[in-house]
Amino acid sequence: MNVTLRQLAVFEMVARHLSFTRAAEELLLTQPAVSMQIKQIEDEIGLDLFERLGRKIYLTETGVELYRLSREISAKLLEADSIVDEIKGADGGRLLVAVASTVQYFAIRLLAGFCERYPKVNINLKVTNQKGLLQLLENNETDIALMGEPPEGLDLLSEPLLDNPLVVIAPSNHHLRAKQNIALQALKNEVFLMREQGSGTRTSTERFFSENGFKISASMEVNNNGAIKLGVEEGLGLGIVSQHTIDIEVKTGRLVILDVNYFPLMRKWYMVRRSGKRLSVVAAAFENFVRKEKHNYVRFP
Ligand code: PGA
Question: 83: Cβ–Cβ under 8 A, 6 or more apart, which residues?
């Protein structure tokens, strides 16, 4: 049936008032314009919608049925409108965020704040390393990524977010814990719990040590900051982690930050998205929230 929503709306108004004149007044149309729309529907379906008895019009059987259907359609359209409004107001909708593992503690606090402001938003959070994040961006599987600096030459828009200092951590009874200005050479006798290949933390740590002419020895490779912290606490070796990830452990005395020369190594976090991607209203609201509120969610030891 080739009937437009406009024609249905005109029909519904005539059916409601059982009057072409009243319908025309409400719709701000002329009466012939209303009659024309009704005639077009009747021609299209090949049946009459109204019958005239004396001065009154009545719905035919077909008219009654079409009136019921058109009210259902109107209700659905109203529902669709309110869904669109909700999403436009960033009160609902879905947000896909991916963050580097160093960012996860900060990101959880940030998302808690965002959810408080937009409680109806449905959030999907992925935590992975630099390599995994680049993959998610490439596959268009995330709206926004919070991560270390992406390599140049990719089709990405990135803006600096916060400093990400990398520090050397040790168990609280470590023999270097109270020493100041520890020379890099002193680390030659230590073993490290290293992040996995593909981690930005790992890449920049390796680059730093090779620029300074030596290689640190890894006792273990671990793909998770939480496990590195536990391993360091248990005396499995030293760790090099983002200062953003160790607030509680340092405050409670389970870990110490060693005062090693040249540390902290300064990295940065960025807010990144695909350059051609049109952000949903929710994702744009999140971007603004991050820009404005980021400093309120940083916890440094
Ligand atoms: P990552 O952290 O080590 O989990 O990849 C992000 C980064 O600092 O690049």
Answer: 92
